Structures are given as structure tokens and as C-alpha cells.
Automatic annotation (TrEMBL):
Segments for region (Disordered): 1-26
Membrane protein topology class: Multi-pass membrane protein
Protein name from the UniProt record: Natural resistance-associated macrophage protein 1
Catalysed conversion reaction: Mn(2+)(in) + H(+)(out) = Mn(2+)(out) + H(+)(in); Zn(2+)(in) + H(+)(out) = Zn(2+)(out) + H(+)(in); Fe(2+)(in) + H(+)(out) = Fe(2+)(out) + H(+)(in)
Keyword Transmembrane helix recorded: yes
Spans through the membrane: 48-67, 124-143, 155-173, 197-215, 236-262, 301-327, 354-373, 393-411, 423-445, 451-472
Primary subcellular site in the record, as a coarse category: membrane
Polar residues composition bias: residue spans: 8-22
Gene name for this UniProt entry: Slc11a1
Family that this chain belongs to: Belongs to the NRAMP family.
Subcellular compartments: Late endosome membrane; Lysosome membrane
Keyword Transmembrane helix part of the UniProt annotation: yes
HAMAP family, alphabetized: NRAMP (MF_00221)
Length: 507
């Protein structure tokens, strides 16, 4: 193959690609399998299964773009953001991704605490389960010292446990296959209201977590690719796409098991009916968690495990709890590595993995302990659902940058997004922003006190302002020259060589 050096040049001689120089060895990174989605969305019927399907497809598109960026440039998304965005929006963008990572870590803490509570038949209080998560953090760091292979094996074990446990629940529950297929391939939700909207937004946030897009762009750098050979880059892009498709297919099947089981167990079930089912089972001590009224059962990860145990025996409850525990540990791994890459990419600040985990876990444990001690378990489970929604609200801060940079010939050379890819991803991004905006507006009337409106208004202005800025730079990268300001011409032509070197050496 003849090396085409012209691919490294642009129309303007003073600008260039940000790709690593030929021959530069890629940095060592942790196992690439860790971008697998591990959150568990739980709707009460099969009506939202199509949301799961299309969220997974969207997740695959995002993973494809992230992998292409890492393969072509040799840099992860955080590093490219550091080079191109000015300091203020770059810092705010970094804070939003850190918020997503901390939210994900809080979900791990909540899921692990609930799993320990279920496994111990309530003997371990929720606050005790929260504190136990400190121990599993140190276990994870201890395992990390033994090399990547053992870490990969441990992660593979967690995924296997999740597949087996939730697969067992699926077989035992025997959901209607016809209703399952209809829910997957016929997008509709008759009679749905704000609770279903909350669930739908939560599903998107559970499947496509923003920090995982940053993580995946870094994980692909573990493979050596000769970036002077187009055929090697094209081949690497293809294999990483296949790998992502396999991983997300496993994730989809696990989530489908969970959603189908709960659609079967909870569909149109009232609290009174759930109480009677548990009262007449071997788990009658759990019946009191269901109020004796005719309201539809509010599904969460705690009540879900209980009702499964009441319907199908105690084994179903304990197997569900083990699956929750495995999901929580895999979440710890992804959050740890994502946080490390995001901090190094945006700030050029290198922390030890121990310090990084200690910071995020401390931020996650404090509010979770307060909720566990001063509120009840329902509030803790509701907090988990809201954290899924938070992931969806923060999703534009990962998708807009990845769409921007993968559409720039200055960054991607001949591997920049084509017209069809730009149209599809842009429409999807607009849809996500519209859904998030609609959710925020529809959620405002449910605020408990008028004083909250002021706080929400301030946050909304900042949120929409950052999205508007990212959308503006994205439009420039897509060729909207009439929007280009002199300070942002690099989104059209790339960065000058000297600015690349200064950006890579500065924090």
C-alpha cells in the first residue's frame, strides 16, 4: 500500500490534523469491554420496549463515532475537547460529565445497598449497605493491581452473572412473546402520561450514559493502528464496530429480560393485589411494603425483587439481588476508568486511580447515606430512577461534541461523517434535545414549592446556554460558514500546528 501523505494536509497550509504522529505508541488503557451498559431500566408494561430497542441502536451509533474518533486521531474525546473548546465552555462541559459520572456512581451505591438488604433479608440496613460499597471499591482497586487480564476476567464474570440471573427471571416469569414482539417493533404508548415519559427518558439515560462515550473513545486506543495506512484505519473501524455491536447486543438482551419480566409481573397490578400475593407467600414479611390501596404498583428495583420472590419463590428474589450486585460492580469499573480519562483529557491532570475512586465514591456515598438514614427505601429507589433521567439530560454534552469532531475533515481526514451520517445523527440529536426539553417543561408543575422554580430557572438557562454553544460549534463543523466567528474558525479548518502543541502540553 502506497502511503498517501496528502491525507494529512488540509486546504489551508497553516492548519493540520490532530492525529498522533506516525509511529507514536498508543497509551496503555484498561479492557475495552468496560463500555457495556449496565444500568437496568424498569417500566411497568411492554409498551416502552421499543424505546429500549431504539436507544440501543442510538447507543451503537454513538459508540461507532467514539471509536472512529479514537482510531483515526489517536486521541480520546476529552483530549479533542481540550484542544478545540475555549477554557470556560470546556470547564463547564467537564463538570457536566463529572456530574454524570457521580450520578452513575450513586446508582451503583444504591443498587448495591438494596442488593445487600435483599440478600440479608433486611438484616443489613440500607445505610449499612451504602457503607459496604466502600469495601467493594478497595477490592476493585486491589484486583486492578494484578493486571488487565484478571480485570477483564472479573468483568466477564459480572456480565455472565447478570445474563444468567436475569435470564432465569425471564424463564420463570414466562412473559407473552407476542406482546413482547409487539412492544419491540410497534412504537406506541396509548394512555401514557408523565410517569411513562419519566420511564422513557430514564431508559435512554440508562442505555446511553454520556461518560461511556468519552470512555469508549479512549478504550479503542489500546490497539496499535498504523494511521498512515488508510486500509488499517478502515479495518480497525470495522472491527471496533463489530465489537460494539456484540457488546450492546448482550446489553440489550439483559435489559430486555428485565423489562419483559416486570412487564409480566406488574402489568395493571394494584398495591392491594401485590400485598395479598406477598401475604400468602413464604415472603409474607415483605407484604407491608405495599400500601393497601387500589393504586397501580410503583415499580422500582427493591419492590421488583420482592414481588418476583412473592410470585416465583424466594430463589427469584435472591437471584435478582445477585444480579443487582453484579450490575453495581460493573458500573463501578466503567465509572472509574471514565472519570480518569475525562479528567486527564479535559484538564491534563493525572490522578492515581485510588484518589480518583476515593473522590467520586465519597461524593456518591454522602448524599446516598443521608437519604438512606433520614428517608425510606422508596425515596432511595426513586432517587435511582431520577439519576437515570439525569443521564439522559446530560447526554447532549457527549453526543454534540462527538458529532462535531467526527464531522470535521480537519480532525477525521477522509473518515469524517458523510452526508447521510450527518443527517441521521443530527436528527437524532435534535430529537433527544426536544424530548429532554419537553420533560423539563412538563416536570415543572410537579415541583413541591414555588421557590424551586427560581433554582430550576437558573439551571435551565445554564443548561440551554451550553447546549446552544455546542450546537453552534456543531453547525460550524457541518459547514455553516455564515455562523463562523473569527475565534472559532478552527472548527472549519482545524487547529494550527503550534496551537496543537501548546494545547497538548498545557492544562
Amino acid at each position: 500500500m502506497i502511503r498517501d501523505k496528502s491525507l494529512q494536509r488540509l486546504n489551508r497550509p497553516s492548519y493540520g490534523s490532530i492525529s498522533n504522529l506516525p509511529g507514536t505508541a498508543p497509551p496503555k488503557v484498561p479492557p475495552r469491554e468496560t463500555y457495556l451498559s449496565e444500568k437496568i431500566p424498569i417500566p411497568s408494561t411492554e409498551q416502552l420496549l421499543w424505546v429500549l430497542l431504539w436507544a440501543t441502536v442510538l447507543g451503537l451509533l454513538c459508540q461507532r463515532l467514539a471509536a472512529r474518533l479514537g482510531v483515526v486521531t489517536g486521541k480520546d474525546l476529552g483530549e479533542v475537547c481540550h484542544l478545540y473548546y475555549p477554557k470556560v465552555p470546556r470547564t463547564v462541559l467537564w463538570l457536566t460529565i463529572e456530574l454524570a459520572i457521580m450520578g452513575s456512581d450513586m446508582q451503583e451505591v444504591i443498587g448495591t445497598a438494596i442488593s445487600f438488604n435483599l440478600l440479608s433479608a433486611g438484616r443489613i440496613p440500607l445505610w449499612g449497605g451504602v457503607l459496604i460499597t466502600i469495601v467493594d471499591t478497595f477490592f476493585f482497586l486491589f484486583l486492578d493491581n494484578y493486571g488487565l487480564r484478571k480485570l477483564e476476567a472479573f468483568f466477564g464474570l459480572l456480565i455472565t452473572i447478570m445474563a444468567l440471573t436475569f435470564g432465569y427471571e425471564y424463564v420463570v416469569a414466562r412473559p407473552s412473546q407476542g406482546a413482547l414482539l409487539q412492544g419491540l417493533f410497534l412504537p406506541s404508548c396509548p394512555g401514557c402520561g408523565q410517569p411513562e415519559l419519566l420511564q422513557a427518558v430514564g431508559i435512554v439515560g440508562a442505555i446511553i450514559m454520556p461518560h461511556n462515550i468519552y470512555l469508549h473513545s479512549a478504550l479503542v486506543k489500546s490497539r496499535e493502528v498504523d494511521r498512515t495506512r488508510r486500509v488499517d484505519i478502515r479495518e480497525a473501524n470495522m472491527y471496533f464496530l463489530i465489537e460494539a455491536a456484540i457488546a450492546l447486543s448482550v446489553s440489550f438482551i439483559i435489559n430486555l429480560f428485565v423489562m419483559a419480566v416486570f412487564g409480566q409481573a406488574f402489568y395493571q397490578q394494584t398495591n392491594e393485589e401485590a400485598f395479598n400475593i406477598c401475604a400468602n407467600s413464604s415472603l409474607h414479611n415483605y407484604a407491608k411494603i405495599f400500601p393497601r390501596d387500589n393504586h397501580t404498583v410503583s415499580v422500582d428495583i427493591y419492590q421488583g425483587g420482592v414481588i418476583l420472590g412473592c410470585l416465583f419463590g424466594p430463589a427469584a428474589l435472591y437471584i435478582w439481588a445477585v444480579g443487582l450486585l453484579a450490575a453495581g460492580q460493573s458500573s463501578t469499573m466503567t465509572g472509574t476508568y471514565a472519570g480518569q480519562f475525562v479528567m486527564e483529557g479535559f484538564l491534563k491532570l493525572r490522578w492515581s486511580r485510588f484518589a480518583r475512586v476515593l473522590l467520586t465514591r465519597s461524593c456518591a456515598i454522602l448524599p446516598t447515606v443521608l437519604v438512606a438514614v433520614f428517608r425510606d427505601l422508596r425515596d432511595l429507589s426513586s432517587l435511582n430512577d431520577l439519576l437515570n433521567v439525569l443521564q439522559s439530560l446530560l447526554l447532549p454534552f457527549a453526543v454534540l461534541p462527538i458529532l462535531t469532531f467526527t464531522s470535521m475533515p480537519a480532525v477525521m481526514q477522509e473518515f469524517a461523517n458523510g452526508l447521510l451520517s450527518k443527517v441521521i445523527t443530527s436528527c437524532i440529536m435534535a430529537l433527544i434535545c426536544a424530548i429532554n426539553l419537553y420533560f423539563v417543561v412538563s416536570y415543572l408543575p410537579s415541583l413541591p414549592h414555588p421557590a424551586y422554580f427560581g433554582l430550576v430557572a437558573v439551571l435551565a438557562v445554564g443548561y440551554l446556554g451550553l447546549i446552544a454553544y455546542l450546537a453552534w460549534t456543531c453547525c460550524i463543523a457541518h459547514g455553516a460558514t455564515f455562523l463562523t466567528h473569527s475565534s472559532h474558525q478552527h472548527f472549519l479548518y482545524g487547529l494550527p500546528k503550534e496551537e496543537q502543541e501548546d494545547g497538548e502540553s498545557s492544562g
